[in-house]
Please model this.
Amino acid sequence: MKSKVFSIGLLDKYHLFIPNEIFVPFAEAKQNRVKIKATFNGNSIEFYAAVKKDKNTDDYKFMFSKEKQKQLGLILNDYFELQLFEDTSKYGVDMPEELDAVLLSDYEAYEIFESLTAGKQRSIIYGIIRIKNSQSRIDKALLVCENLKRGITNPMLMFKPQ
Model:
């Protein structure tokens, strides 16, 4: 499932509002997490987002971080193009290969990771993705696996040596 490409304005500092006619097919299919492609002036980024219904307006919206705005070169009131896609990823975000490799080499940690809620899994994945250096990603993934085996499942504590 995918939407047509549509134009949208950056009218709020942190959210993008999706027209109902664009998102209703996703909502009806119970697809509240989507993959998004945003394009502006030849720049393009892809990312995953959770779309929620705004309680005040009944419109659909998602968080659109300052970092993503900067990657596209947007400023307030700029209009750009979006397209929504069904999220077919296992975790609602792309798994970094370093974390995947470490989990595959440690079955006990893998089982614990798989037993976590989807939100905790994504928190771990995002924590690894933020690290730029591949070796540092591996080191952090090893630390996370050790902490999981120690029973630490709080994402705020998982990235710290115990």
Remarks:
- The domain at 6-86 is CATH 2.40.30.100 (Elongation Factor Tu (Ef-tu); domain 3).
- The mean pLDDT is 92.
